[in-house]
Design goal:
The protein has 83 residues and is an alpha+beta fold. It has a single domain, classed as Nuclear Transport Factor 2, Chain: A. The chain is built from 1 helix and 4 strands. A 4-stranded antiparallel β-sheet has the order 1-2-3-4, with no helix packed on it. Strand 2 and strand 3 form a beta hairpin.
Length: 83
């Protein structure tokens, strides 16, 4: 993997609940070689340890899956989410 890269300008950074300098970076790629991709990268400290490339047309399904999980937790009172 690569060394430290700038934080994504289109996307976000999410800290892992376990701590230990773990994070998830979400970045949109608009350059010709990777146009239409969302890259999910796992970081530990300043090092990228894994990446996953998701086609832009699959992002909606990912968001729906995440939303369904949150809605389930709210509806059932499980997890740490509140309505």
């Amino acid at each position: 993997m690569t060394g430290v890269l700038p934080l994504p300008t289109h996307g976000g950074v999410f800290l892992d609940a376990r701590g230990d300098n773990r994070s998830l970076r979400v970045s949109w790629h608009h350059d010709a070689g990777e146009a239409g991709l969302v890259v999910l990268s796992l970081w530990r400290g300043g090092a990228c340890v894994a990446t996953f490339r998701l086609a832009a047309d699959e992002v909606e399904a990912l968001v729906e899956a995440l939303t369904a999980g949150v809605e389930h937790d709210v509806a059932t009172g499980t997890g740490s989410l509140t309505a």
